[in-house]
Design goal:
248 residues; mainly alpha; disordered N terminus
């Protein structure tokens, strides 16, 4: 008995040290959480988020603090991070009212992230847990309407793109047809030019032959003129010779 008491007494300082450390950590995490709440009230959401995360690093069992982290992320426009935090929070609570509110916050995060299917499903989950949760019912209607408008816009854009594509295809066909007609017209003109050249060619040849004949004719005339001149000169020489003989 004395030996057991001795062991217990020897263990007390270590136990007291552990308790002191836990108390110190608890005080520190509460201080950080209070600072985070203060930052949140002052709408300094980035600092609030840092403090909440720091508190969870000190004590990972503070799973419910993920709700605060989710809200701070949402207010900082970090919608995907907010959805992740609310999802973790949902896995660690059992009260239907709290879960309905968490599903509502999750739906809002998905709605802001433009993930409308997930948003609508989250609102439905909230209403299953709490049929009187009118905020979820209203936001689900908003999300459904936005989703329908987006689908209509997408369909309209697709139709517009298809119409533009059809117009482009028709324009290309018209251009090809015009080019083909242009080629045909060009071929016809080329054929006409070719025929004209062929038709004009004999005439040019005739003209060329006529000029050759004309040159030969002129040369013949010149030759005749030379012959005539030579004959005249001979006749003149004879006359002169007779005259000279007569004078003697």
């Amino acid at each position: 008995m004395k030996s057991f008491n001795k062991i217990v007494l020897q263990s007390l300082p270590a136990l007291m040290l552990i308790l002191a450390i836990n108390i110190t950590y608890a005080q520190e995490e509460r201080k950080i959480i209070r600072q985070g709440n203060k930052n949140f009230k002052e709408k300094n959401f980035d600092h609030a988020l840092l403090n909440y995360k720091k508190a969870t690093e000190i004590n990972p069992d503070l799973l419910e603090l993920n709700n605060n982290i989710g809200i701070a992320n949402y207010r900082s426009d970090n919608f995907n991070d907010a959805a992740s935090s609310f999802d973790v929070y949902l896995k660690n609570i059992t009260d239907n009212k709290q879960k309905a509110e968490a599903f509502y916050n999750l739906g809002n995060s998905y709605l802001q992230a433009k993930e409308y299917d997930k948003s609508i499903q989250s609102y439905k989950n909230a209403l299953r847990l709490d049929p009187t949760h009118d905020k979820s019912r209203y936001n689900m209607a908003v999300a459904t309407k936005i989703q329908q408008q987006q689908q209509n816009q997408n369909n309209q854009n697709q139709n517009q793109q298809q119409n533009q594509q059809n117009q482009q295809n028709n324009q290309n066909k018209d251009n090809k047809k015009q080019d083909k007609n242009k080629d045909n017209n060009q071929n016809e003109n080329d054929n006409k030019d070719r025929n004209n050249k062929q038709q004009s060619s004999p005439q040019q040849q005739d003209n060329k032959m006529s000029r050759e004949e004309m040159e030969r004719f002129l040369e013949s005339l010149q030759q005749k003129e030379r012959d005539l001149q030579e004959k005249l000169n001979k006749e003149k020489f004879k006359i002169q010779k007779r005259n000279i003989e007569k004078d003697w």
